[in-house]
Amino acid sequence: MKRRNLWKTVRVPLLAAAMAAGILSGCGKDPAPAPDGKEAEGEKVFYYGDTTFNAENDESDVNPHNGYSGWACIRYGIGETLFKYSDAMEAEPWLATEYTNVDETTWEITLRDGVTFTSGRALDAQAVRECLDHLTEVHERAAGDLKIQEITADGQKLTIRTEVPVPALINYLAEPYGCIIDMEAGITDDGNVTGTGPYRATVVETDKGLTLVKNENYWGGMPHLDRIYVQTISDGDTMTMAMQSGELDGAYGLPYASLPLFESAPYTISSCETSRSFFGAMNYETEALQDANVRRAIAGAIDKEGFTRVLMNGNGSPAVGPFPASFAYGDDTVTAQLFDPEASRALLAEAGWTDTDGDGYVDRNGQKLTLRWLTYPSRQELPLLAESAQATMKEIGIDLQVNCTANHLDFIDSGDWDIYASAFVTAPTGDPEFFFTTHCLDASSKNRGNYHSDELEALEEQMNRTFDAEERAELATRMTQVLLNDNSFVFASHLRMSIVSGEGVTGLVAHPCDYYEITADLDKN
Amino acid sequence: MREKQKMTVGKQRAAGDYIKIKMILFGTLAAGVILTAVFAPYLVPYDPYEQDLGNALLPPGGAHLLGTDRYGRDMLSRVIMGSRTTVFAALLLVAVITVIGSAAGILCGYHGGKLDAFLMRVSDIFLAFPGMVFAIAVASVMSGGILNAVIALACISWPKYARIARSQVLSIRNMPYMAAAKLSGSGTFKMICRHVVPNIAGPVIVTAVLDIGTMMMEIAGLSFLGLGAAPPTAEWGSMMSNGRSMLQTSPWVILAPGTAIFLTVVIFNLVGDTVRDLLDPRQKGR
Known about the structure:
The complex is a heterodimer of chains A (525) and B (286). Chain A is an alpha+beta fold and 525 residues long. Chain A has two domains: 45-267 and 502-524, Periplasmic binding protein-like II (D-Maltodextrin-Binding Protein, domain 2); 273-496, Roll (Dipeptide-binding Protein, domain 3), CATH 3.10.105. Chain A contains 14 helices and 21 strands. In chain A, a hairpin with a 2-residue loop joins strand 4 and strand 5 (106-111). Chain B has one domain (61-270): MetI-like fold (Orthogonal Bundle). The mean pLDDT of chain B is 88.
């Protein structure tokens, strides 16, 4: 009897203590997880958080011949391309040492000596040929860009013949899909490949992450880290906390609002302007938008400066056209409608849109000017741009209805939109032609709003046949100005990308093209 | 013996007074919240939708008592305006589920038979799903919007009321006064309106008032997940969600709507408790 009473007395505090212990143990800093459970003494291990390594971004593994997975291959130091982009986004030799443009359709490329794949095979022209043959066979986008007719291999000399002149061939070869992998070693079922980079992947888990170990035979010197765990953390706030708690040594894709937390020691931030641009495309099927004055009024009602400075916390620059000012054909060379609500109101009035019923919105023939702004949430800036545009458009009397949905492509297909705001890397190859051929021409796959300009088509004809870089830049400038004069697209902002490094981390540097993250220089002390 | 009885009566009276005082106090607070919601457009110091990027993320104090959000909108105005969405949506939701649920329950209890069996199996099916998960599924199928969130929550919440109403109807169906009413020639409609509804109203009302707070939380929850109010609508849940990434740098953005949700839910729960004490003496002290 007495014993039972004692039990009765102590069981409640005991239970409480056990629960408290359970809760508290969850708060403690767990030793960072080692997915495969092996971590030898004295090993240098690095934990890297990234938002994009997942199927949603078409980056489900590290096989460069699969969708956009080449981005993972090159970002995490697994694969390398024949040419790489300099800080000025010009292609320079990497696995290749030089090239000559024999004639309009023939390119001779000399490969670097002494490079081996992690499989042990030496890199020669034959290996590159096998890789590129497979690439053009299975990868539609690459085949369309490169237009390769035939490749011949002779020792370290690679000769590429294209079906038609491809002036930007070298730039295209520096695209992540151009990572050279050993096709003899093949592609595993989980999408792993054998590259020439400073690290090789041992575990590839879609949507979860990667385990990388160093390539002891790397041609560019011994990498500093023994093991790297890349972890996919899609939620920016979760990643912020992981970075603060020390679970991560480096992070890519943190929300802007979190960046001020990492401005002081022991953290460092590496930032860089990129050609990722946020822009809206006008739907030419919408009657109201067929009026040039209405388009111009809209272009003048987007507060680019405020959006960039305040909503993006200054992590970007207000855009004029698709390319940032650092490019030879960038923002400094073109002009666009400036933010001026007053002028926009006047333009709308000129087009016959005035507020006759005093409800704050303009109308014509009894119809209120209501536009549907379509965008999607996976790029954190886009919903902010939408809400900002909604407020500034209201000022000029346009009722903007925001539809921010992950199903944006369904709405594109059904045509239920008037302005489509998206984020896109406008010059992923450092060459301007790509943007126009993708978004603005009659034949473009992403010309969502059915925009057509005779002048632009004619200029593209010329661009297609021009090899000289300066002439191409000149043409790009003229083409951009055509777009801006038509106001068929409104460019809001160029993104500045930031990578945060934790204590003792060196060599994690942001690059304008957004491709090179983990390199042989990365170290942690 | 008599002495003792007297004391108990005295105690009961004191307790009754106490409940009345509580009712007045919490009722006033709840009325305050509802009046704030009704007159929100006249109470706000600034336009809650007016953006002013030059004054973004100002800390509380000065011209903006609760600070401003990332678009430079006044937080106090947004919180006051947000009470409209959240409180009205919760009240509407509770009203809808009370009426629909009780009607279904009364029908089942009064009629019995196949209709009863059918409706109760349907309600079983709804009760078998985990509530919030089902609401999220329904809300995402119907895509966002506060009205859709209300419909989604109504879909999952009505069976509770049907069950309560039905069990109450069953317990009074065979009472002598029911038989008497029937003998005196009352039709079904009259029976339900005059004799059933007034006699089962107590427990249903108690449940409804207690549910206001819960529903408020669930609406705010759906909005937080982006399935309720769509931007730029001022709604507490979506305001918290939008401020999430600024919790460490500009905490007022999330604290203001958070505190508003907390206080309002507490007030409505206290009102619910007190209403229960008033209407349902058997439950007292449980």
